[in-house]
Amino acid sequence: MQHIAEPVVEVAPADARRWQLRDGELARIWSRNGVMVAKVLISDGQRRGSLFVPMHWNNQFARQGRVNNLLAAVTDPHSGQPESKQVAVAIAAWLPAWHGELFCRQPVPLPEWLHWRRRAAAGVTHLSLAGDKSPRAWLTDWCQRQGWQVQVAQAGVLWNLLAWHEGALMLGWWSDAREPVVESEWIIAAFSSPPPTAELRHALLSGRKGGDVAPRGRIICSCFSVGERGDRRGHRRGLPHAGRAGGEAKMRHPTAAHVSRN
Predict the structure, then answer these.
(1) How many domains are contained in the chain?
(2) Does 132 map to a domain?
(3) Cα(35)–Cα(252) distance, rounded to whole angstroms?
(4) Cys staple from 43: which of 10, 117, 221, 229, with CB 3.0 to 4.6 Å?
């Protein structure tokens, strides 16, 4: 069985078009019992009119990643078997204001308003974060209270941060309008072997060995050097309102979520 790095929801292509869901982006799924957040996986093998969500994610690995949040606490009166096969749900795209990748030597206390997923990483804590409220004040303040020296690079509303203590890398943060493109193995190695030169430290602040501090994606407007990601940021600012309206309609036309028991 293939390892799945984070909570996902499989959606039929026709349903993805109907609900304006994009492969690889986040969605909120809710029922009368609760809500969860998962990454959309558009699959030709998924039956139209239903969703598939794997089990086994708990609160140690993701916030709002448990499919059991959607299910009623109903059991068979004789065997005690839970009714965990299916439930009527609604789904809507969630387009956060930002995404971030956080690496740290020690566990980081996270605010309730952050969405997060834990990544597998040796020797450090690696979290993928997303949200609508800026985390900059919270994260900068927490680093400074640890007595760490903070190094920040900013491009518009997006920003990256490194925190140092006595020459050792303590924390790294990279953000973008979409999931940041960073070289995770290189970043993790920097915790045990810090970059020896200012040039390499600047590259580390970008999250990529030779990249710009703020990734722009493909250039789609050469007049103003606008990258694909910058353009999508502009489009996304207008989408959440439409998404909320669509979400209300979806509540009146629920689909079914099938839960894997593997």
Answers:
(1) 2
(2) yes
(3) 16
(4) 10
